[in-house]
Design brief:
By secondary structure, chain A is of the alpha+beta class. Chain A has helices at about 45-50, 75-80, 100, 120-135; strands at about 5-15, 20-30, 60-65, 70, 110, 120. By secondary structure, chain B is an all-alpha fold. In chain B, helix 3 packs parallel to helix 14, helix 9 (about 185-200) packs across helix 10 (about 205-215) and helix 13 (about 265-275) crosses helix 14 (about 285-305). The chains are: A alpha+beta, B mainly alpha.
Amino acid sequence: MAEELLLEMKGINKNFGAVRALSDVDFHIFKNEIVGLVGDNGAGKSTLVKIISGVERADSGTIRYLGREVSIQSPDDAKQLGIETLYQNLALINNLDVVANLFLGRELVRRWPLGIVNVLRSGEMERQTTEILGRMKINLGSVREKVQVRSGGQL
Amino acid sequence: MTAGTVTTPNRLRTLWQRPEVRDAILDNLIWLILAIALFGFSFIPGYFSGPVLINILLHSTFLGIMVIGETLCLLTGNFDLSVESVLAFTAMFAAVLMGTRPPTPGWGISPLLALPAMLAMGALIGAFNGVCVTKLKINPFIVTLATLIVFRGLTIIFTMSEAVIRFPLIYKAVATLSVGPIPALVIVTLGLYAVFHLVISRTAFGRKLFAVGGDRDVSFAFGLEPDRVVILAFALSGLLAAVAGWFLSARLDAALPGMAEGMTFDVMAAAVIGGVSLKGGKGSLAGALGGVLLLGAINAALTVALVSPYWYRIVRGLVIFLAVGLDTLKQRLH
């Protein structure tokens, strides 16, 4: 197996007030490795994942990504590195349609010269959504329907 | 039962049960209400005349411009009560900068400078509201109620409760010009609606307004920077209130300490009756415009029918009640 480190975390600490969520945690993932993070309720699994995805910030410790030390301050930083998070319950915005949810936070836009206004490329996003869903053999009917009318399993 | 024997009421019910049909009807309810109202008002003698209709549009401009900003805030799940005070304060601010009446302590600054200054002032007050709501995490009701009161007070204290009258021509031009019978104010307002409609429906910022209003936490997790979106929405609301301040003072050729007092509630009512949800994430500017026109039509009806002005508040209160009731009902039906 190729022993190249993808993500390496050392000495991660995180406190929520008096509650010590993570104490001196070391964690690493090799390239092409699929890792399951297992633990009791309250063990700090989610906190660790939130730190990786930029939703929470560690109080101390270092994170290296492909050998380079990185600082993940926001979900946007994580995304820049190529870290995506799928949440169990925090996943969809109900009042938006399927297309908008799929492209949330990375909308395809046409930048205007001044760079102030980013116009959405709705047609292209809709086309890609249909294509992705088709590839996965998911038939949702209209991708322009708001997601709140769907059941959880459909998405 | 075969398809051929389905009776019409049944078919209507099936249609009603399809979510996209139901949404379309509920979201465009305002146009139905407006049509019924106009039909009713058509029995008032003299209602459907050119001047009255132009007047409805003209008086809708000041309200309408503030409703655009309010809609932006409402979409993010917030609201801005301070708009009427921002309108008055920025108008008075520009008036004092220009200093148009001898007894008024004015600085005689050119309107070409005073105008951008008043617009920037509006945006700044709005941004302040936004920062208090997002960074200091104060409830938007409290924040904008405070700015509503404070900036009304500042407007009054600015000139010790005196009106400032007579503005330079450049400042007033927007309110005096017209294209044929249609006042320039109406055209500019409709232009603003068109522009902001595109912003809301076609840009990444517009999409973020709905996302943040739909679920702030999910938006944050997806890197949408909800705080920035909310601050920008409030800043635009302040900016648009200042634009309304410019237009109204230009039209009156005066800045009055008490101008636009109580208008905030018309602004909220117009947006909500136009289908913009108080809970955030739902609504359109087209609907909000319908709400503005409905309030304008009602006001004109009261005027043309010579109803005593004492009744106006009662009618307006009932309209707000209707608007919020409708919002609640729609949420239950959705």
